Amino acid sequence: MNESAQALVLHALAEPRRRAILRLVGDRELAAGEIARRFEVTRPAISQHLRVLREAGLVEERRDGTRRLYRARRARVEELRDYLAGFWEGRLRLLREQAESEGFGGLPADGPPGAPSAGAPPRPAPAGRGARRARARTTGGSGARGGGTKSSATKSGGTKKRETKGGGA
Is 131 strand, coil or helix? Predict the structure, then answer.
């Protein structure tokens, strides 16, 4: 895709409705009226959007009697994808080179350091809320049912302490 074609394609896709239209006709052919019914704009506005997409080579038009049917042009969409992928490929290559130059030249065959190896048993799941309560009861802590004091805010901004079930602190 040459630079003028790229400019047309990027201009066409700068408008959100045109991107939505392109998604609609991406895998099926639709009549202009069917496309227009899916948007809350006038039919002439949709025709204008379709014209911009057609001039950018992103959609093709086929006439069937008085109807105009639109479908995405796969070849141009693939050219666009390849063009955009070029930005990522270069950036990813630079990132890899930077990491390698800083001594992060790759990962061991079995994954990042500290990760379990393929034959290692799975780690136990972290204890949940119920496990903390059970520990507090068995260790005499001030868990949900253990004894202790509880602080609460007062209207004047101070705090007051009260004894909870199970005795004092």
Answer: helix
28-84 pLDDT per residue, tens: 999 999 999 999 999 999 999 999 999 999 999 999 999 999 999 999 999 999 888
Task: Identify whether the C-beta of residue 69 lies closer than 8 Å to the C-beta of residue 35.
Answer: no
Strand 30-31 relative to strand 159-163, pairing: unpaired
Task: Tell me the DSSP string of 32-50.
Answer: HHHHHHTSSS-HHHHHHHH
Instruction: Say how far apart CA 27 and CA 22 lie, in whole Å.
Output: 9
What's the full length of the chain, in residues?
169
Burial class for 114, CB neighbours closer than 10 Å (0-12, 13-18, 19+): exposed
Q: Environment class of residue 130 by beta-carbon count within 10 Å: exposed (0-12), middle (13-18) or buried (19+)?
A: exposed
Q: Residue 92 in 3-state DSSP?
A: helix
pTM > 0.85: yes or no: no
Is the dihedral angle over the CA atoms 78, 84, 90, 91 positive or is it negative? negative
DSSP annotation of 142: S
Of 145, 135, 152, nearest to 167 by C-alpha is 145
Distance CA(89)–CA(48), nearest Å, equals 35
